[in-house]
Design brief:
Elements (H helix, E strand, L loop, with lengths): L1 H11 L2 H16 L2 E4 L5 E3 H7 L13 H7 L3 H11 L1 H13 L1 H9 L1 H31 L11 H10 L5 H29 L3 H28 L6 H4 L13 H26 L6
Antiparallel strand pairs: 1-2
Helix pairs in contact: 1-8, 2-5, 2-8, 4-8, 5-10, 5-11, 6-10, 7-8, 8-10, 8-13, 10-11, 10-13
């Protein structure tokens, strides 16, 4: 199983399959909100790089690299991440099917090992690619904004306690771990499509479309929940893939992890059933 996993990961990390999603993730991070303007408009981090701040404020520490890096996992990334993270996976699995390599690998590895290794390698690849893109985004920010540690200690104390858990290094480690899990969770849409469909248009469009529909369903549930007089919707928020970023010892975070594991278990089981029946996604 381990050898099969390593082989699949090598395929997923073929350089052209890595560069596109990593650069794409970094670019989408730049579209996140970096500042709220004087009229209440949202100003992206990319706009801050091009035009600078439009708000005269004493709290310029919010323009530090660490603070803006924290804001980078925004709405546009959440929308397009499933397609970007599984782009290489979708391409190489499609090529394997059209070249007949799937049947050869099934003979060599066996149905169960092949299916599990294929799904798990795609999940791990998605996590690694998101972390790589997120780190690239942080490195890019360091070219244009001051570091968090360059500000006076008095200014840093509040932000360290309120936003960064009183530990610079611990926060970064937890944020990267959360980004890794988020990449795994987001990839389930693309992996699910890749193992069941062969049509190229389906493979390109469905990961984005399924993610969009899923997000809209959750948003509608939240609106209905609040309109009924509820004060909190944490249990609904836990179903968003992005909820897994905030690593915490709570039942809501555990629900996010459980949902992710169950989603991959279902995809792997259905994939195994189809392969065992000789159905490769026709």
């Amino acid at each position: 199983m381990l050898r099969c996993m390593v082989q699949e990961l090598k395929k997923n990390f073929y350089p052209p399959y890595v560069l596109f999603p990593v650069i794409g993730i970094a670019c989408l991070c730049l579209t996140a909100t970096g500042e709220i303007g004087q009229m209440g408009e949202r100003i992206s981090i990319f706009s801050l790089i091009l035009h600078g701040s439009t708000v005269d404020t004493q709290e310029q520490i919010t323009k530090s690299v660490l603070y803006l890096w924290r804001e980078g996992l925004g709405n546009w990334l959440q929308l397009f991440a499933p397609l970007l993270l599984t782009f290489g996976y979708i391409v190489q699995l499609s090529e394997e099917r059209h070249s007949g390599q799937v049947q050869f690998q099934l003979m060599r590895s066996g149905n169960f090992r092949y299916c599990v290794a294929k799904v798990l390698s795609g999940a791990l690849s998605g996590g690694v690619l998101l972390v790589a893109g997120y780190l690239l985004f942080g490195g890019f920010l360091s070219l244009f904004f001051p570091s968090f540690s360059s500000f006076p200690l008095e200014e840093r104390r509040y932000y360290l306690e309120y936003y960064f858990e009183n530990s610079f290094s611990l926060y970064i480690a937890k944020r990267l771990a959360g980004a890794f899990l988020y990449g795994i969770f987001s990839s389930v849409f693309g992996i699910g499509v890749a193992v069941f469909f062969r049509d190229k248009y389906m493979l390109v469009c469905l990961p984005f479309l399924l993610n969009y529909i899923y997000q809209q369903i959750l948003q509608k549930l939240m609106i209905d929940h609040f309109s009924s007089g509820a004060q909190s919707a944490e249990w609904i928020e836990a179903f968003y893939p992005s909820a897994i970023i905030r690593i915490a010892c709570s039942r809501y975070w555990a629900l996010s992890v459980l949902l992710m594991l169950c989603s991959y278990a279902v995809v792997a089981a259905l994939f195994y059933r189809n392969v065992k029946r000789g159905n490769y996604g026709e």
